[in-house]
């Protein structure tokens, strides 16, 4: 794999998988506008898809998982508790790469989430403890309180079942699919 994002994407399946995991690495930056934003889709109470943008916080290739942080009172936690099947989509414009990921998501709270909570920057803590709970109807745009609450901090851990990698680099687009159940061996697909 090359570090040059302008180079053509690899055409060897093992290299494509390496490239995909490199794209999933969280971008640890001081400017949060450059954070790794992904779209998380869950299934709501009516059975409809519910999608929202979230920040990728960690990826662990040996474990085959991705972590996202959230306020435990958000509707997405209720949706995940009711049906842990989720989809995640990442578009990296700088790499001309789309990743579509599905799997099962766990909600990690309490002592198991404490280490991650303790590493959050001070300015991020009030994001976990909004009152009323996120998604609740309020009287005006600012009719809510932000107060850090470690008990409301949760890690959403997606255990990846399959990974669809689409390169839109010119002149040739490529697509590969990798599944946990076959040891991430991979197959080519038409883009």
Automatic annotation (TrEMBL):
Cofactor(s) essential for the protein: FMN
* Keyword Thylakoid applies: no
Q: Which InterPro entries match?
A: Pyridox_Oxase, Pyridox_Oxase_Alr4036_FMN-bd, Split_barrel_FMN-bd
Q: Which GO terms describe its biological process?
A: pyridoxine biosynthetic process
Pyridoxamine 5'-phosphate oxidase Alr4036 family FMN-binding domain residues are 21-108
One Pfam family recorded for the sequence: Pyridox_oxase_2
MF terms in GO: FMN binding; pyridoxamine phosphate oxidase activity
Q: Which UniProt keywords apply?
A: Flavoprotein, FMN, Oxidoreductase
Q: What is this protein called?
A: Pyridoxamine 5'-phosphate oxidase
Q: Which organism is it from?
A: Pacificibacter marinus
What taxonomic classification does the UniProt entry list for its organism?
Bacteria, Pseudomonadati, Pseudomonadota, Alphaproteobacteria, Rhodobacterales
